[in-house]
Design brief:
Structural class of chain B: mainly beta
Distance between the termini of chain B: 48 Å
Helix content of chain B: 10-25%
Protein name (chain B): Ribosome biogenesis protein WDR12 homolog
Shape of chain A: elongated
Radius of gyration of chain B: 25 Å
Largest sheet of chain A: 6 strands, antiparallel
Subcellular location (chain B): Nucleus, Nucleolus; Nucleus, Nucleoplasm
Number of helices of chain A: 20
Domain NLE (chain B): 19-86
Strand order of the largest sheet of chain B: 2-1-5-3-4
Number of helices of chain B: 5
Helix content of chain A: 25-40%
Main location (chain B): nucleus
Strand content of chain B: 35-45%
Strand order of the largest sheet of chain A: 10-11-12-15-14-13
Oligomer: heterodimer
Shape of chain B: globular
GO molecular function (chain B): ribonucleoprotein complex binding
Number of strands of chain B: 34
Largest interface: A-B, 21 and 30 residues
């Protein structure tokens, strides 16, 4: 800065002929180290400008280091003749500022001006000084360092010169370092011309402002400048006008010619504004300092510090002098050698410091995704062995006390028992005892042993940290089932109603070909409906509430069995004309010479009154007790009835063509509820209130007992394949048994809110359904696989809920259409509904 | 072409934008000028009807009765406003759009109720204006087109499920056939002069209820379908010709008189068991060599008469209740239990699967009924019109060019009655297009739907 400012005053300086004369000595050849010139010029100037006040402190720091170069030049200029080193130290700017600020002394100001003027003069006539300097330097070299500062200066000059050259190289990366030709005077000149200074005290501020503006001419912002490579302009100024390129448009010849500029070495290319900027000497000095890791030129690290005197309470050091450098020096030869070796290696480039061992993380974008990576990362994080805290020992209680409450102390009997007890069974391994004084307590002789065992425990027992299993998504607990939409067809909505009954419809049954639907109701009627038209084609009035209706499953027969009270009625409904026009098959099975027979408390009658004949009533069975359930064998010749009130002989099997009955099953603790024939084999299922028994009819033995866990079975059904059984209970349960798997339920379905009345399989499709008093019919997909390895698949499909509740009774019976995915239901609301 | 002006107007005001249309029609009575007109695009059916009426009045200088019209663009009915339709049909407003119009078919104003004794299960209209109906009271009845009961025939032992006219051209020797739940088919003669129904033959071979009968186009044979999964063909040529006219006694006494006179045929011409059919519910014999059957196993089968083998099987999604074939367009309409009426084109390639995943032969499905559809019948001599009945008690009149029925008569839906059958009658053989609809159902009333007083016609 100081140098910059001085030249600006060249106009004033020009007035001083003396100075000019001093500078006159002549122009030496320019190869002389250029930097000496400033040294010389001050020499002339300072003669007049001695009074400059300088802090006298800085004697010592004048070292041959490069940092001082610029600073030292100035003092030299000012006081070349003086032998005292002090003036060198004083930064010129400070001087000036002080002078300006004080402005007490006109003279001083004048001198300042003079000073500047001298420098201006240098422009033309430095060279002589240079020579002088050279000479001086030569002398200096021979002279002892301590003798004068001039020596130092010269030394400095030389070094600085070298360094400046380096600097130039580093900044400009210019190969042609023809610095020898650079004239310092010219150097100064350019700077002088660049900034016009007046004696105006405010000049500095103005100047600073303007320079600020200058640097900000290009307003394109912080963008890659390559974007403007292809344009003629480099950006826009504040007003949005283009700023044309100047420097970068130069061709190589121009650039080469620029190298002839003596200041080329300190010209820096400003990319943003596309200008060449000449570095001022201050800048150079600053750069040099930075390069050498030293303080900036105008900063005094060793400022005078006033010692306030000894303070006993002081915890701070008494001075702020830095640690001596020797304290950083290596001690001993070994260390030195090692350090030397290292520095050598570093210089040779064997050791580099900025080589960071960066692990580039690669992502497999096509793989399982970043998730796995995250997991890996997390694992990496937790690689360190986590310490697992030892399990806590039980804290001593009252028993362990040296003065336990009375009840803990053992009585004699207890003591005896204690001794008889196996040591492992004892509640604790000591006998509680009471001591009146703490000092009476003997040493615990098992201490070491217990400590040892505890250590063994901790050491040998594997411990794992309890990880709290936190599952975010409750859905993952749900089993994976196919979607109901994929399992069509299944009944999904109510289609039609069969209206006609006047009381709750207790039972329904579908004919084997699916054309007819029979229903029995509490209004003491049995009706048969044509499914396709909902037409009631047949009505039979009976004496009591109808308990059960069941079509003969053989399509050759047109036979319907009805149970009401203790009677079972076999009818051939006159659907196809008068009742006497039945198919030969039907007639054959129903015709037997003797009209009346009786066996096992069952009386078989063939009613002969005309009303019954017209209605198609062919046979009547009179049993001892109320019949609640009728089941046909698949061939249609046998059927079975259940009358729970009868006790041990409650299940009877009737042979239709022979008109014979038998009750082969005796064993049952609770009344039998329902019975079923196996769909293909001579196997018979009997359910009492909580157990389903499976009998082989050929061998006449019990095969299996299915333990249902249900308190009151309401119905059972056998899968058409024969290996699976479903059961429903009045205690809201539906159980699926796989006979090959276990005698316990394979699946228990607790979906219904009230008693489940009926559960049935679809004869052909993989469906099953349950109906309940909660008015709902649940439709399930129940797929049974042929291979024994795969368990049945049960998928809830649909809840049909259209019936109305009457007297807390809901859906009383359901029946599947034999071929279609249709389900019929009858309810307490005296309707029958068809869902398709 | 004023397309430029049209677009200009379009820019000016979207509301007032117009489109060039040309009205055409097949009906000479309502024809108007076919020069293109610019009409506002926001017009609907009503607006367009007004335009037509206005044109007619201005042309003929008469104060005619304003009629509602229906409008078609490329055989699609306009059911929304014109601009929406144009947008949906991917047409451009820049072109002249040809709009076909025809008199709108409106709901018949009146219906004639004819009391039956029991549920009507089937009804069949003849070209002469005669109606034959079958009922669950075991009787068959013949009505004239104004709803007067002409005669009742008895003899079936169970409800009648299907009836069909064999011959209704010859006024003197009309004959029809009925199928019943008692597994038999009966042939009847109806003498228009004496108003007497007389049984001529009983066909007994089915082992299940006979659900449907159909007459061959040459009126020599009948076809029957039964729940025993068989289709049988019967020859009735001899019966019709050799029917003795000697017995003039009325056969009111079912057992005594009738059995003596009538032939009993226990052997059919051909019998085919339809495998896995779960019962044949409907048969149809539209052309001489093609038979159609529909069954509970969700399939429509096309039969070749000569070999009596299945020539084509169309698998449908639901059990069938009725099929009907129209010779006009060669389409089959089927009534299904899943509330849907489906229209099939048997000429389409069966193997090509459509992009929608539907059946390749299915051209359309009409869904409007609330319960399963019990019958669907093409209007005679019509390519587009059909009527359907459903167990929800509604009868619907469809034009297959639109997915919405032209009208729906659902007065019975609230009373929870069911309709089982509907058919077309024409009062005069010459005037086939003026068909009336007749329906029957669980309300035990034969209903004839008409606009004007029947007796005046």
């Amino acid at each position: 800065m100081a140098i910059d400012k001085k030249p600006t005053t060249k106009t004033t300086a020009a007035k001083k002929p003396a100075v000019a004369a001093a500078a006159a000595p002549a122009k030496k050849d320019e190869k002389v180290v250029a930097k000496k010139t400033p040294v010389a010029t001050p020499a002339a100037a300072v003669k007049a400008s001695t009074p400059v006040k300088v802090a006298p402190t800085k004697v010592a720091p004048v070292k041959p280091t490069t940092t001082a170069v610029v600073q030292q030049k100035q003092p030299q200029k000012q006081q070349p003749t003086k032998s005292t080193p002090q003036p060198k130290k004083e930064p010129v700017i400070e001087n000036k500022r002080k002078t300006l600020e004080e402005s007490e002394d006109e003279e001083e100001e004048e001198e300042d001006e003079l000073d500047f003027g001298e420098i201006r003069e240098d422009i033309s006539e430095d060279e002589g000084d240079d020579e002088e300097d050279l000479d001086q330097e030569d002398q200096d070299e021979s002279e002892q360092e301590s003798e004068s500062k001039v020596d130092l200066d010269s030394l400095v000059e030389y070094r600085s010169d070298d360094e400046e050259e380096e600097e130039e190289e580093s900044i400009k990366s210019n190969t042609t370092s023809s610095k020898s030709g650079i004239d310092s005077s010219e150097d100064e000149d350019t700077t002088v011309i660049g900034k016009k200074w007046t004696s105006d005290p405010n000049q500095f501020y103005d100047d600073e402002d303007s320079s600020e503006d200058e640097s900000l001419v290009n307003r394109v912002g912080n963008i890659p400048l390559e974007w403007y490579e292809d344009y003629d302009h480099i950006g826009y100024d504040v007003d949005g006008n283009k700023i044309m390129k100047t420097e970068s448009n130069k061709d190589s010849i121009d650039k080469f010619l620029d190298q002839a500029d003596p200041n080329f070495w300190r010209t820096v290319y400003d990319k943003v504004n596309d200008k060449n900027v000449l570095l001022s000497p201050e800048d150079m000095a600053l750069l040099k300092n930075i390069q050498n890791r030293q303080f900036p030129p105008d900063y005094d690290p060793y400022e005078f510090w006033y010692d306030p005197g000894p303070n006993p309470d002081s915890i701070h050091p008494m001075h702020n002098a830095p640690r001596p450098k020797r304290s950083f020096f290596p001690h001993g030869t070994d260390e030195e050698r090692e350090i030397r070796r290292l520095t050598k290696l570093i210089r040779a480039g064997w050791i580099t410091f900025d080589k960071k061992d960066k692990k580039t993380h690669t992502y497999d974008i096509w793989g399982e995704g970043a998730k796995t990576d995250e997991v890996e990362l997390n694992q990496d994080k937790h690689k360190a062995i986590t310490r697992i805290p030892a399990p806590k020992q039980r804290l001593p209680g009252n028993v362990e006390s040296f003065n336990p409450p009375e009840e803990y102390l053992l009585t004699d009997n207890e003591m005896k028992a204690w001794h008889l007890m196996d040591p492992r069974e004892r509640p604790h391994n000591f006998i509680p005892q009471k001591y009146n004084f703490l000092r009476h307590i003997p040493t615990y002789n098992k201490l070491i042993k217990e400590r040892f065992e505890r250590c063994l425990d901790l050491y040998l027992c594997p411990r794992t940290k309890k990880v709290k299993q936190f599952t975010k998504d409750a859905n993952q607990f749900l089993p994976k089932l196919p979607k109901p939409q994929d399992l069509r067809p299944f009944p999904s909505h109510e289609e039609i109603q069969f209206n006609g009954h006047t009381d709750r419809v207790r039972t329904i049954s579908v004919s084997p070909n699916g054309q007819w639907l029979a229903s029995g109701s509490n209004d003491n009627t049995v009706r048969i409906w044509e499914v396709s038209s909902t037409r009631c084609v047949y009505t039979l009035q009976v004496d009591n509430e109808v308990q059960c209706v069941a079509w003969n499953p053989n399509p050759l027969f047109n036979i319907l069995a009805i149970a009401h009270n203790n009677k079972v009625v076999i009818i051939t409904p006159p659907l196809y004309g008068p009742a006497n026009l039945q198919t030969a098959d039907t007639e054959r099975i129903l015709t037997k010479p003797d009209a009346h027979s009786s066996s096992k408390n069952v009386d078989w009658y063939a009613p002969s009154d005309s009303a019954s004949v017209e209605k198609g009533v062919r046979l009547e069975l009179h049993l001892a007790f109320k019949v609640v359930n009728i089941t046909w064998h698949f061939k249609g010749d046998y059927f079975s009835t259940t009358s729970p009130e009868e006790g041990s002989k409650s299940v009877k099997i009737h042979h239709l063509s022979k008109r014979a009955s038998q009750s082969p099953f005796r064993r049952s603790k609770t009344p039998n509820q329902v019975s079923k024939f196996h769909p293909t084999k001579p196997i018979f299922f009997v359910a009492d209130q909580n157990i389903i028994r499976v009998y082989d009819l050929m061998k006449q033995e019990l095969i299996k007992k299915l333990i249902t866990g249900c308190r009151y079975i309401s119905s059972i059904d056998i899968h058409p394949g024969g290996d699976n059984v479903i059961m429903s209970g009045y205690d809201k349960k539906v159980c699926w048994f796989d006979l090959d798997l276990s005698v316990k339920p394979y699946k228990v379905l607790n979906y219904h809110k009230l008693a489940v009345r009926k559960v049935i399989y679809h004869p052909t499709l993989p469906l099953f359904a349950s109906c309940s008093d909660d008015l709902s019919i649940h439709i399930f997909h129940g797929m049974v696989y042929d291979d024994l390895l795969q368990n049945a698949l049960i998928v809830p499909l649909k809840i049909l809920k259209t019936h109305q509740s009457v007297n807390d009774l809901g859906v009383l019976d359901i029946a599947f259409h034999p071929k279609q995915p249709w389900i019929f239901s009858s309810g307490a609301d005296s309707t029958i509904r068809l869902y398709i | 072409m004023d397309t430029t002006t049209t677009t200009k107007e379009n820019k000016k005001n979207k509301q007032e934008s117009k489109v060039k249309v040309r009205f055409i029609t097949n009906d000479p009575n309502i024809r108007v000028t076919d020069t293109p007109l610019a009409v506002p695009v926001n017009l609907g059916r009503l607006g367009l009807s007004e335009v037509i009426n206005h044109l007619r009045n201005s042309e003929e200088e008469e104060n005619q009765v304003t009629k509602p019209f229906d409008f078609l663009i490329n055989s699609k009915f306009i059911r929304t406003s014109l601009d929406k339709h144009i947008k949906n049909a991917n047409l451009t407003e820049e072109d002249v759009i040809t709009i076909e119009y025809l008199e709108a078919i409106t709901e018949p104003k009146k219906e004639k109720e004819c009391q039956h004794d029991d549920w009507i299960s089937c009804v069949e209209g003849g070209l002469n204006g005669l109606i034959v109906s079958g009922s669950y009271d075991l009787g068959v009845r013949v009505w004239d087109n104004s709803g007067n009961l002409l005669s009742t025939g008895t003899g079936h032992l169970a409800g009648v499920k299907s009836v069909a006219w064999i011959n209704d051209k010859n006024q003197d020797a009309l004959s029809f056939v009925s199928a019943s739940l008692d597994k038999t088919i009966r042939l009847w003669n109806f003498s228009n002069t004496d108003k007497i129904i007389k049984a001529t033959a009983v066909l007994k071979e089915h082992t299940g209820t006979v659900e449907s009968v159909s007459i061959s186009p040459d009126r020599q044979k009948i076809m029957s379908g039964s729940m025993d999964s068989t289709i049988k063909l019967w020859n009735i040529k001899d019966l019709n010709s050799s029917t003795p006219n000697t017995s003039t006694q009325t056969s009111k006494k079912r057992k005594a008189a009738a059995t003596e006179e009538i032939h009993t045929i226990t052997e059919s011409l051909a019998s085919v068991t339809v495998p896995n059919s779960q019962g044949v519910t409907t048969v149809s014999w539209p052309t001489q060599f093609q038979l159609i059957s529909g069954s509970m196993d969700h399939s429509i089968r096309l039969w070749d008469l000569n070999t009596m083998s299945v020539s084509e099987t169309i698998h449908t999604p639901s059990p069938l209740h009725d099929v009907s074939y129209t010779v006009e367009s060669g389409l089959i309409v089927s009534a299904h239990a899943d509330r849907t009426i489906r229209i099939w084109d048997p000429r389409l390639n069966n193997t090509v699967v459509t992009a929608e995943g539907g059946h390749p032969m299915q051209t359309q499905s009409l869904i409007s009924h609330k319960k399963w559809v019990s019958s669907a019948k093409w209007k005679p001599n019509s390519k587009y019109h059909l009527c359907s009945t459903s167990l929800d008690g509604s009868i619907k009149y469809w034009d297959i060019r639109t997915k919405i029925p032209l009208y729906s008569i659902d007065r019975l839906t609230e009373s929870n009655e069911k309709l089982f059958c509907s058919t077309w009658i024409t009062d005069k053989p010459a005037n086939i297009d003026q068909s009336l609809m007749v329906s029957g159902g669980s309300d035990s009333k034969l209903r004839i739907y008409h606009d004007d007083d029947l007796n005046n016609k």
